[in-house]
TrEMBL record:
Compartments reported by the entry: Cell membrane
Gene3D superfamilies: Metalloproteases ('zincins'), catalytic domain
Cofactor(s) recorded in Swiss-Prot or TrEMBL: Zn(2+)
Keyword Protease attributed: yes
Principal subcellular localisation of the protein: membrane
Keywords assigned by UniProt, alphabetized: Cell membrane, Hydrolase, Membrane, Metal-binding, Metalloprotease, Protease, Transmembrane, Transmembrane helix, Zinc
Protein name (database record): Protease HtpX homolog
Domain Peptidase M48 residues, every copy: 82-290
Gene: htpX
Length: 292
């Protein structure tokens, strides 16, 4: 259920690129000295300002971006659907149990995938959204376990800690991208060096952002275990384990259907690397909860 991380990282990259273009156009943050070399102190300060600005702007926009991209429909306790009122009641009950003073917004988005996510810039301005596929595929106990997991993310302040980590990663991305771009620009004619430098900055920044996401994904996997434990405390360990087993059964069924559909193409359905995964393996998550 990595929508939370996907929206944050996507917004972060777009914001970083936009800030870089704007600063370049207005000539802000000139770290090239008169001799044509790099003033590393100035560049580091510039990188930190841009890096943390990018991550905090991404955090501030996270709830709005999620709503727009996923077409989330906000529901409340006055909804005409009893099913929707039950979902709101679950979110609010679990939120109170987690010690949240301000209740998250609750939304549903139309997708057949079994998914849910929590996002928002703070505990006061958070969102818990579930997919139509989740409500269709899972039973009541499994749904409660999933919602408890998302509420635990909010209660743990995972979006804020993710933002701080992303700010550090962004700082290194901006810093290294400009050093690499400066090095590349030294190999071209002096009259086109500024253009090459500008384009190279954008290319290296995107490339290094992708590499930096490995660190963010590793942290995300660690926080998933923590949210699982929080959900077990809120909804009960049995419901959280049941939710994970239900999700595993669903993913296995979907994988088998896909294997059947593409078998004639001789495509192997190999397990993808965990480097770019926001979530740990389901078996690992289940086993850790069982030992809790």
């Amino acid at each position: 259920m990595g929508k939370r991380i996907f929206f944050f990282l996507l917004t972060n990259v777009l914001v970083l690129v936009t800030i870089s273009i704007v600063l370049r156009v207005f000539g802000v943050g000139n770290y090239i000295n008169q001799a044509g070399g790099i003033d590393f102190g100035t560049l580091l300060v510039f990188s930190a300002i841009v890096g943390f600005s990018g991550s905090f702007i991404s955090l501030a926009m996270s709830r709005w971006i999620a709503k727009k991209m996923m077409n989330v429909r906000i529901i409340d306790q006055n909804s005409s659907s009893s099913r929707e009122r039950e979902i709101v009641e679950k979110v609010h009950r679990l939120s109170r149990a987690a010690g949240l003073v301000h209740m998250p917004e609750v939304g549903i988005y139309d997708s057949p995938e079994v998914n849910a996510f929590a996002t928002g810039p703070s505990k006061k301005r958070s969102l818990v959204a579930v997919s139509a596929g989740l409500l269709h595929e899972m039973d009541d106990d499994a749904i409660e376990g999933v919602i408890a997991h998302e509420v635990a993310h909010i209660a743990n302040g995972d979006m804020v800690t993710m933002t701080l980590l992303q700010g550090v990663v962004n700082t290194f991305v901006v810093f290294l991208a400009r050093i690499a771009a400066w090095a590349v620009s030294r190999f071209v004619r002096e009259d086109i060096a500024p253009i090459v430098h500008f384009v190279a900055v954008l290319v290296f920044q995107i490339a290094f952002s992708i590499l930096g996401s490995i660190v963010v994904f590793a942290y995300s996997r660690y926080r998933e275990f923590h949210a699982d434990r929080g959900a077990a405390d809120l909804a009960g360990k049995d419901k959280m384990i049941h939710a994970l087993r239900s999700l595993k059964a669903y993913t296995n069924r979907i994988s088998e259907e896909n294997d059947t559909a593409i078998s004639t193409l001789k495509i192997n359905n190999k397990k993808k690397s965990m480097l770019f995964s926001t979530h740990p393996d389901l078996d690992d998550r289940i086993s850790r909860l069982e030992m809790k």
